[in-house]
Specification:
By secondary structure, the protein is an alpha/beta fold. It is 40% helix and 19% strand.
Length: 347
């Protein structure tokens, strides 16, 4: 039996995780797997219940689980809270507690949705890339503060932090098109110069993989001008956060994209890349496909169930092909419609 911790979170989180867990249950029945789902609070809802965004009981559940599925956290209700009391601080603490150091965000536009993306269709044909974002270092975790009329946030990276995420990116490239683009700001930042030195050295361990270095400002432009050039992108925490959200427009909507946060073992954290969207919460129109595809990544990376993972991905493709399109992509299908359409197409 596999244990999956489910953290529905805030806003549309409970709605989209409900559909994702329905799909997970269906695929488990289809492939004869036994999966126990246990829910726990995290984010704003946990603050309301316990006063903190990540209760110890929630972290303990996650640590004894085989995988963690997260909806989304945050919202206007908690915007006035500061520092470690904010819902988003719970997510950073969860990643740290689980030891996840790499966030994987694949982007492969569905042919039917290409016309809904803001870019010309010819730019999106054949696009299939993955952003590998470092999660434990950088400006999000360095010293920060306010002193009178000045504020500071410190960006720090160690050689070890860079080595492990870059090595993971190269390993992934072996099963793809064998091209890694390492993105930095080495013309200005010392942390980026370290990043470039380490990635160059690691690249020599993978002579069959082509390594390209690119400055982040140039990459932000080329990701829109010629996204088909990219295969595996690896970069630091802040740059990865920004570029992966930029890449979401290639898929037509941020609601389509899943992610996996991985560490040394099989335990991983899986979530869509979008936020809690409190403006549409409770209306039944949120796009659950990104969360459903996150379940596919959960099956692949944590539960080692490749066949079941592919079944979900095929079912999502088939649902979209059949015209089951949610509101964020200009369709009229409800959140539940999308979940049901995927379940009906699992085989």
């Amino acid at each position: 039996m596999s244990l999956v911790a489910v953290l529905p979170g805030d806003g549309i989180g409970p709605e989209i995780t409900a559909e994702a867990t329905r799909v997970l249950g269906a695929v488990a029945r289809r492939y004869g797997a036994t999966i126990e789902l246990v829910s726990a609070p995290m984010g704003g809802c946990a603050i309301d219940l316990t006063g903190v965004p990540l209760p110890q009981s929630t972290l303990d559940l996650c640590l004894r689980s085989d995988a963690v599925l997260l909806g989304a956290v945050g919202g206007p209700k908690w915007e006035t809270l500061e520092g470690p009391r904010r819902p988003e601080a719970g997510l950073l603490a969860l990643r740290k507690g689980l030891g996840t150091y790499a966030n994987l965000r694949p982007v492969a536009p569905h042919p039917r949705l290409i016309e809904r993306a803001p870019l010309r269709a010819e730019l999106l044909k054949g696009v299939d890339l993955v952003v590998v974002r470092e999660l434990t270092g950088g400006i999000y975790f360095g010293a920060r503060g306010r002193e009178g009329d000045r504020a500071f946030d410190t960006c720090i990276y160690t050689t070890g932090e860079v080595e492990r995420v870059v090595r993971l990116a190269f390993s992934m490239a072996r099963t793809r098109r064998r091209r890694v683009t390492s993105i930095d700001k080495a013309n200005v930042l010392d942390t980026s110069r370290l990043w470039r030195e380490v990635s160059t050295r690691i690249g020599k361990e993978f002579p069959e993989i082509t390594l390209v270095h690119e400055l982040v400002d140039a990459a932000a432009m080329r990701l829109i001008r010629s996204p088909g050039d990219y295969d595996v992108i690896v970069t630091e925490n802040l740059f990865g956060d920004i570029l992966s959200d930029e890449a979401s427009v290639l898929a037509g909507s941020i609601g389509m994209l899943p992610s996996a946060s991985l560490g040394e073992g099989r335990l991983g954290l899986y979530e869509p890349i979008h936020g809690s969207a409190p403006d549409i919460a409770g209306r039944g129109i949120a796009n659950p496909y990104g969360t459903v595809l996150s379940v596919a990544m959960l099956l692949r990376h944590s539960l080692q169930a490749e066949e079941a993972a592919r079944a979900i991905e095929r079912a999502v493709d088939a649902a979209v092909d059949a015209g089951v399109i949610p509101a964020d992509l200009g369709g009229k299908s409800t959140t539940a419609d999308c979940g049901t359409a995927v379940i009906e197409r699992i085989h």
